[in-house]
Amino acid sequence: MSLLLRLQAGLARRFRRHAAATRLYEQALASAPDDPRLLGRLGQCRAEAGDEAGALMAFRRLAEVTPDKAGAHYNIGYLLDRAGDEDGALAAFDRALQLEPLLDRAWFGRGLILRRRGRGDEAVAALQKSISANPTAAEAWLQLGELHLERREDPQLDGVILQLRSLQPNFAWRLMQAKEAATAAAGTPENEKPPAEQTPPAAG
């Protein structure tokens, strides 16, 4: 029966029938309450349906059942961040990284929170670690580029733009436009301004 419910739930989820899939996963868990795969699928399904509080409950239970698995802690951190609990999210990301130091998503989530908190150096380091673990993560490159832009670190920003030209050209274009706007807003240095035109003498 449990196998049939799993198959039905997976099919419902595939067709984005989240309410039906959630109900089927919950029925399957009634006979196997500590099944980590079912708990993970239930958490994902609830999150996809917009029930983030329910998803958080499922992932917290999953973390209790499999405390050595980084994925559950990452998902807890992601949902806590969305709920506005940055301290809880950072703690969950840190726990995930203790278990899986190369989990790029956890470094990315950590970098976003640190950036919002104005801790630029730490945010840059976290995003660089996310990219090191997953060099094709275009969103991490974009966030890193925006940080370099905010910090007026043009050489580093140019390096990010170069990487994004092949990974995600739209992101590269966005950063280039932002850089041009920032340069225009800053104005042209006095020593680079063209000489003022001479005023013709008044007719006598």
Can you walk me through this structure?
- 75% of the residues lie in helices and 0% in strands.
- α7 packs antiparallel against α8 and α9 packs antiparallel against α10.
- The protein is mainly α.
- It contains 11 helices and no strands.
- The protein is elongated and about 65 Å long.
Summarize the structure in short.
This protein has 204 residues and is an all-alpha fold. It is built from eleven helices and no strands.
Task: List the topology elements.
Blueprint lengths: L1 H13 L3 H14 L4 H13 L3 H14 L4 H13 L3 H14 L4 H13 L3 H14 L4 H13 L3 H14 L1 H18 L18
Helix pairs in contact: 1-2, 2-3, 3-4, 4-5, 5-6, 5-7, 6-7, 7-8, 8-9, 9-10, 9-11, 10-11
Question: Mind summarizing the main beta sheet?
Answer: none
Find the count of extended strands (DSSP E, 2+ residues). 0
* Structural class by SSE content: mainly alpha
Radius of gyration: 25 Å
The residue ranges in which pLDDT falls below 50 over 5 or more consecutive positions are: 193-204
Count up the helices. Answer: 11
- Please state the overall shape, judged from the principal axes of the Cα atoms: elongated
Intertermini distance: 107 Å
Beta-strand percentage range: under 5%
Order of helices and strands: HHHHHHHHHHH
Overall pLDDT score: 87
Relative helix content: over 70%
